Amino acid sequence: MAQITRSWLSSLKRISQQNGSVQKTCALRASSAFIAGEPEGPTVKTDVPGPKSKQLLNELSVIQQAGSVQLFADYERSLGNYLVDVDGNVLLDVYTQISSMPLGYNHPDLLQLLNDPYNVKTIVNRPALGVFPGADWPKKLKNILLQVAPPELNHVTTMMCGSCSNENAYKSIFIWYQQKQRGSSTDFSREEIESCVVNQPPGSPSLSLMSFYGAFHGRTLGALSTTHSKYIHKIDIPAFDWPVASFPQYRYPLEENRRENDAEDKRCLAEVEDLFAQFSKKGKPVAGIVVEPIQAEGGDNEASPHFFQELQRIAKQDMPLQKTNNQLPDLINSCCLRPLQPYRVFNTWMGDPSKLLLLQGVLEVVRRDSLLAVVQKSGEKLLTGLRSFEQEFPHLLHSARGRGTFLSVTCSSARLRDDLIARLKKKGVQTGGCGELSIRLRPALIFTPKHADIFLDRFRQVLKETK
Amino acid sequence: MAQITRSWLSSLKRISQQNGSVQKTCALRASSAFIAGEPEGPTVKTDVPGPKSKQLLNELSVIQQAGSVQLFADYERSLGNYLVDVDGNVLLDVYTQISSMPLGYNHPDLLQLLNDPYNVKTIVNRPALGVFPGADWPKKLKNILLQVAPPELNHVTTMMCGSCSNENAYKSIFIWYQQKQRGSSTDFSREEIESCVVNQPPGSPSLSLMSFYGAFHGRTLGALSTTHSKYIHKIDIPAFDWPVASFPQYRYPLEENRRENDAEDKRCLAEVEDLFAQFSKKGKPVAGIVVEPIQAEGGDNEASPHFFQELQRIAKQDMPLQKTNNQLPDLINSCCLRPLQPYRVFNTWMGDPSKLLLLQGVLEVVRRDSLLAVVQKSGEKLLTGLRSFEQEFPHLLHSARGRGTFLSVTCSSARLRDDLIARLKKKGVQTGGCGELSIRLRPALIFTPKHADIFLDRFRQVLKETK
Edge to edge, what strands does the sheet with A438-441 contain? Predict the structure, then answer.
């Protein structure tokens, strides 16, 4: 369920990018209209992590592997685009909890939601949605999730998180593929029924899913078998022997490198067709393709519309194309992927209505405050700024890219990238990395051009101070 | 994270069962003290599902496979042990959303939690706990989760749900196993790093996990490879080729069938040792064993302490034993399973503080209202009642079993079982099935002997009316 938030956020940005006519009719409010009392700018008083964060990290490390923790936050004092840490440092947050806080911190409209006793009951009475859904559930799915889904995706099955959504999307693909082999029969053979219980074919068939180098689809064992962004996610973990194809690696700016990039598309598509044949030959036919429209964790790698159209053409010869993560919500399947029988794509909770409640609140604010226009304006300002830095510091940065405020830029080395992120934090700006070389921006939808100015100013200082 | 609730619920019941001295000092409050305004008993006005539920099911079926839905609930009107549906039927809920509502519906203390602005902020500001945890997080883990964990399990890593917890427990086992092979070295080889990215050994090693017939550990692809309770969960889905051993099937009452049951333990343990050897020989060594102390979904199948001790002995020769679901919380690992490096057992959110908030509320009510004593008394009454029905209706029921109110009874046929559950519902009692033949009881902790009387009365009527 929660995955929806991120997918939806990205969808909105995409829509914002593609539909200029909508934005032109929207007046951009002053930033103060979004979050009253937001700090004027970042303030850094200590190292980050500071002494209090370090103390808490020591405590946490006694009971878990906590090596990934960057700081401890004060979520009472964090507000809007500003993350406040326990040492009192106020950071402009351009990363928003790995891109999962669409309205930033403590948005008054979201806090307000829990003044409504009906909503409080939604938090407390979490149902097993697949068995005992609440009276409002069909309407909520239609009025909240399907309202922001692409119109051709008219089915929705909610799940627990991104990995869980992908795992169940994969199951739906395999179920669809096997049903296709059965034709009009809905019966399972005795042999299928008995063999699947002990993980053996024909009941547990020898099928594969194709994914791409650099992809990230999650960390549970099925999803992890389609994730190929960083070795540390995968090493020591058994995986399915499934095909991995190259994802296009483009040269930027795109318009100046059209010939090389077209050739790169061709090379990758040829590899896809070749792997299809290989895996079919070795008795592990490809039942589906899993692909991100923009590989995010893997480095904000984009592919061209032509690449996706060709991929779809290849897939349509044989299977459904399942886009995930950034463009189409993971868990919205078209009706062809609906299992004939119940209990096959199912779990105890099947999502969480309390998350849908928050999403509803987010969507209302986005409409009321015309946040798509904000994303458009802030994104243009950010991308223009990043491109000017490429000109000013060509030895440090290149390939600024993205849609709306979903942006990134590539650094000339991994060491430089890590160093820039660390020094940005010292200047009060929280960003994140992706791939080996890129810095990614994932600000909230309430990130205004004023915030973009602050970010760009600090980033330019950091670049100028780079030896 | 949420899985904790169920594991913890079961742990409490287990403690309740085993530690009679605690309960004897607790005075049992009248049921009215638990939930003011709870209905006096069930009322059934229509078929279940009634016309309004059927209408909503039609709506939902347009957008998803909804064949598992039993009814639509009115969560505004549901209260305590009573689930109210949209047709106004009031059902005594002995199943509690697949055993996930420890305090029943709309418990006033849980509703009250969200009057506190601090808690409202916890709902709205969901952090990426592995990177930016809140100031209160280490303390909450220690004071809430570790307070109810068995003392030898002193580590805790929160996850998203039960399947996600199991998937990450499995990853921890594989990481531990491979680290053991590396000895004191913490370096990965170039070959391991490169091969794991494309799902191949040695980086993605050919290791296995042992699980048991009848087990249920979740439905994501790794967890599903250790789930063997019902074919419909597994058919058409590719699985890892991992060993599946027999889980003891006892005759009841246990004390009258000791010799047969001991022999059954021996048979299953011999199979475990045999499978170890087989999978080692075929190059898929067993890195760990995954086992439920009571197989719940698979039929409430219990195994003896002797069986588990022997299993642990076999495992200790080579690997950790990972108990899941019912006795030890899935996601609490002992420190030997802590990965040396960060980002290996990790995801975007790593749990949800809003669920820990609810668990904290639940634990406070359990202590304040001495609910362990209630569980003990109600459980005794229920089990005594079920055993008397076995005597009265020996052709219909046998093998009443369980701990506290975590109880079940086996029916003489699958058809009878389904029929009894359906007719119990017509009399206003919501129960659930497990395995092929069993009815399971999973009432809330506020289920008092008075509620047990109502359940037993309705169940006896249904049994008497069975042709």
Answer: A397-403, A406-411, A438-441, A432-434
3-state secondary structure of B461: helix
- Residue A326 at interface with chain B, using a CB cutoff of 8 Å: no
Burial class (CB within 10 angstroms; exposed 0-12, middle 13-18, buried 19+) of B357: buried
The confidence score (pLDDT) of residue B334 equals 52
Tokens of B35: 């939930």
Query: What's chain B's Rg over C-alpha atoms?
Result: 23
**Which of these, A89, A99, A70, A51, lies nearest to A421 by C-alpha position?**
A70
- What lies within 8 Å, CB to CB, of B388 at 6+ separation is none
Q: Are B150 and B337 in contact (CB under 8 A)?
A: no
Beta strands at A294-295 and A397-403: parallel, antiparallel or unpaired: unpaired
Q: Are B345 and B172 in contact (CB under 8 A)?
A: yes
B186 to chain A nearest CA, in Å?
12
CB distance A59–B138 less than 8 Å? yes
Residue with tokens 């063997």: B228
Q: Which residues of A touch B155 (CB under 8 A)?
A: 63-64
Nearest CA in chain A to B344: A233
- pLDDT, position A321: 57
Residues B246-252 have a mean pLDDT of 96
Residue in A closest to B191 by C-alpha: A235
Q: Smallest Cα–Cα separation from B254: which of B387, B378, B382?
A: B387
Nearest to B242 among A83, A199, A203 (CB): A199
Closest partner CB to B128 (pick from A100, A221, A242)? A100
| B199 with A225: Cβ contact below 8 A | yes
Check: CB of residue A272 under 8 Å from CB of residue A213: no
Give B222-226 contacts, CB < 8 A, sequence gap 24+. B222/A220, B222/A221, B222/A222, B222/B166, B222/B167, B222/B170, B223/A220, B223/A221, B223/B163, B223/B166, B223/B167, B223/B170, B225/A199, B225/A221, B226/B166, B226/B170, B226/B290
- Among residues B284, B246, B223, B235, the alpha carbon closest in space to that of A195 is found at B235
- What gap in Å lies between CA A253 and CA B415, rounded to an integer? 67
Distance, CA of B353 to CA of B134 (rounded, Å)? 9
pLDDT class of A314 with cuts at 50, 70, 90: confident
Residue B34, φ and ψ in degrees, nearest 5: -80, -55
pLDDT band at A4 (very low <50, low <70, confident <90, very high): very low
User: For residue B24, what are the contacts with CB-CB under 8 A and spacing of at least 6?
Assistant: none
How far apart CA A212 and CA B434 sit, in angstroms, is 40
Closest residue in B to A155 (Cα) is: B63
* HEC assignment per residue over B252-313: CCHHHCHHHHHHHHHHHHHHHHHHHHHHHHCCCCEEEEEECCEECCCCCEECCHHHHHHHHH
Interface of B with A in 117-146 (CB under 8 A): 117-118, 120-128, 130-135, 137-139, 141-142, 146
How many other CB atoms are there within 10 angstroms of residue A175's CB atom?
21
Nearest to B228 by CA among B219, A396, B236, B326: B219
Q: Minimal CA–CA distance to A414: which of A433, A394, A398?
A: A433
Q: Tell how strand B406-411 and strand B301-302 pair up.
A: unpaired
For A129-146, the pLDDT digits (tens) are 999 999 999 999 999 999
Residue B153, chain A, CB below 8 Å: the answer is no
Q: Do residues A216 and A296 lie in contact, with contact meaning Cβ atoms separated by under 8 Å?
A: yes
Q: Which of A93, A119, A121, A236 to mutate to test the interface with B (most CBs of B within 10 A)?
A: A236
CA distance A182 to chain B (A): 11
Q: What is the pLDDT of residue A205?
A: 98
Please state the ipTM of this predicted complex.
Answer: 0.91
Distance between A163 CA and the closest CA of chain B, angstroms = 8
